[in-house]
Design brief:
The structure holds 2 protein chains of 2 kinds.
Chain A: H1 2-24, H2 59-84
Chain B: H1 2-12, H2 18-28, H3 46-75, H4 82-108, H5 112-124, H6 128-168, H7 174-201, H8 211-262
Helix pairs in contact in B: 1-6, 1-7, 2-4, 2-7, 3-4, 3-5, 3-6, 4-5, 6-7, 6-8, 7-8
Classes of the chains: A mainly alpha, B mainly alpha.
């Protein structure tokens, strides 16, 4: 009899613990279909200045990076040309 | 082959350190509001004085607009510290405030000699167009140059990985590796040139009417401009390397596929 009672107590404890864990949301926090990081893949680094993620070496990423560099190179040409605009300062007439 | 790729990777791994150089530029762009110009005895008619005041007003407005514009460009600089940007912006703002005060002073001038000295000081004491704007614009261009070098380095590392993978797949990557090595060299030189443009021009100060100093400043700025042009040439050559590597990788991929199919 006492053996059966111990089993009943054990089952009740397990059920109560299970309910507590379920209520806390711990079991439901990782929903099916959202387990994106289970295969050892790193989340891609945030791209800046139009560049693709630093760990993306796909053809599309190479094209994207080239375009981003072209854009900055155009800006560089403009910056560089702007330096010239001041080099011929004339004194103000009296 | 692997060794060549590693050499290329190490070339691409140079450090970008523009900020310490630019830090000195911030202190160089200082206000000249307290420079005093000798006042000569000058006689001027009322209409001539009014015309001189109008000219001075117009020139000051032009400079204030140019400084405001360059201040906006400073805010978009990415490779310098916030403290550096703030320092530069504060110095530019001090110039703008000085010009605003000079505008009021010129309008209130009653002595022809003082008016002439004040109007002359717009160019000689401040040298906004001849010195300050070029200095800041050189720093801005160098800042963008360092950004481009970083972006090209990131892309270069991706290309290096792709070349290595193509080589492992059995493709002949000799030409691709040579282009990658050249890419690394061009990025490195462009970075050196960009930094040199700032280090040669950052410490210049207004000539205050000293013709020898003005000539020296102009020559130094021209040299810095030449550095920027050399960096631009390097970037263009590096960009060609990138294009040729990307095209070469496509050829290598199709060659590998054909070889695999024919087996």
């Amino acid at each position: 009899m006492s053996k059966v009672f111990k089993w009943v107590i054990a089952v009740v404890v397990i059920v109560v613990l299970g309910l507590l864990v379920w209520r806390s949301g711990w079991l439901t926090s990782v929903k099916p279909g959202m387990q994106t990081n289970t295969q050892g893949t790193k989340a891609p680094a945030a791209p800046t200045n139009g560049m693709s993620a630093s760990n993306d070496a796909s053809d599309a990423a190479l094209v994207q990076d080239s375009a981003a560099i072209d854009s900055q190179m155009q800006g560089y040409s403009a910056d560089s040309a702007a330096v010239d605009s001041g080099l011929g300062d004339k004194s103000v007439g009296q | 082959m692997k060794k060549n790729i590693l050499v290329a990777l190490s070339l691409l791994g140079f450090s970008v350190a523009l900020a310490p150089v630019l830090a000195s530029a911030a202190t160089a762009v200082t206000t000249s509001a307290n420079i005093t110009t000798p006042v000569a005895t000058v006689t001027m008619s009322a209409s001539a004085m009014a015309a001189a005041k109008a000219r001075g007003d117009k020139e000051l407005d032009r400079r204030i607009a140019a400084l405001t514009d360059v201040n906006a460009r400073i805010q978009t600089m990415q490779k310098v510290t916030d403290a550096f940007k703030q320092n530069l912006a504060t110095n530019i703002q001090t110039q703008i405030t000085g010009f605003a005060a000079l505008k009021s002073k010129i309008q209130a001038d009653t002595d022809a000699g003082v008016l002439k000295a004040d109007v002359t000081s717009i160019t000689q004491s401040y040298r906004v167009y001849a010195l300050i704007l070029p200095q800041v614009r050189i720093a801005a261009a160098a800042d963008r140059g360092v950004l481009i070098a970083e972006m090209m380095t990131t892309l270069g590392n991706k290309l290096a990985a792709r070349i290595q993978a193509a080589g492992k797949g059995g493709a002949d990557v000799t030409a691709l590796t040579a282009s990658l090595n050249d890419l690394g060299a061009k990025i490195s030189d462009a970075s050196t040139q960009a930094q040199a443009s700032v280090s040669t021009s950052a410490a210049l100060t207004p000539d205050g009417g000293d013709k020898t100093k003005m000539a020296s400043n102009t020559a130094t700025l021209a040299k810095a401009r030449a550095n920027l042009a050399a960096a631009e040439k390097d970037f263009q050559a590096a960009r060609k390397d990138i294009d040729s590597i990307i095209k070469g990788l496509k050829v290598a991929a199709s060659a590998t596929t054909n070889t695999t199919v024919s087996h």
